[in-house]
Structure formats: structure tokens, C-alpha cells
Amino acid sequence: MNNPASARVEAITRINDFVVKFANVNGSGSASANNMFAKAVFRMGIPVSPHNIFPSNIQGLPTWYEVRISEQGYLGRREGIDLMVAMNEQTIAKDIAAVVPGGYVLYDSSKPLPEHLCRDEIQYLPIPLKDICIREFDKPPQRQLFKNIIY
Question: CA 136, 33, 10 angle in degrees (round to 5)?
Fold first, then answer.
């Protein structure tokens, strides 16, 4: 598959019952952006259950933020990821592997996604986040902060 965005697969059809997982680098400012996402869904009146996964508090190591969105009010985590926001190059292979068939992977397409990470049964949402931030923001700290907010 040369262009992951061109894949045509059977999409997930569940409504208001899915899991979004953000894979980031600790210390990148992602926690605030991820929390804004969970609050936005909650303020729409849909029950959410966010969960931070910090294997280490050392800056630069992987961190995940998982949000269960459930109209029925389920608060427990469930297996499988419906939408993976893959922003950590160190863990991207493992992160993509966790996506259920028919699910989605949003990734920074400023750098091509390696062929071995492309799965036929999931859909890819490429956004050139780094390129956008370099073009729009002069200061490196702003670029990193807004990269997390753009997705």
C-alpha cells in the first residue's frame, strides 16, 4: 500500500461508544491538549472515562491518554482502540497494532509512514502537523504546543 490514506476498508459504525487513544512523548505538553479533548466530549453531554498511562515521569519517554466515550455511561476501559492518535515515533508500531479492524490512525504525515506499518483493515488520517507548525509558528516551543492542539 503506497498511500495509507487511500485504503478503502469497512469503517467502524458504532456511535457514542468508542475508545480514542493518544500516544505522545512525556513532557511535550500533550496532557493539557488531551484533557481538553475529554472535557469537550463531556461538555457535549456524552459520558467519558479518560485514563492517563504514564510508565515513567521522565521527559521524552512514551505516555498515553485513553478516552472511553460511552453513551451508556460505561466507565471501565475496554480492549481495542477505535481511533489512535499516533504522535510518538518510538511506539507507533505497537500503537497501530492496537487499533481494531475498521479503526482509524491519525498521524503526522510530515514524515512518510513506513510501509511495514500500513495495515489494510484500518484507515489512516494523515495530517502534516510538523509542516503546518513550522510554517505558522516562529518559536520552537510554540510549534510543539500547537502540534498537540492541532490534532
Answer: 90
Q: In what order do the strands lie in the sheet with 81-86?
A: 48-53, 62-70, 17-25, 81-86, 99-108, 123-127
Domains of the chain listed by start with CATH number: 11-150 (3.40.920.10)
**pLDDT value at 34 more than 90:** no
Q: What is the chain's alpha carbon radius of gyration, rounded to the nearest angstrom?
A: 15
Q: What's this model's pTM, rounded to 2 decimal places?
A: 0.83
* Contact criterion met (CB below 8 Å) for 112 and 131: no
Interatomic CA distance for residues 144 and 45, integer angstroms: 30
SS3 27: coil
Residue whose entry in the numeric block shows the C-alpha cell 460511552: 70
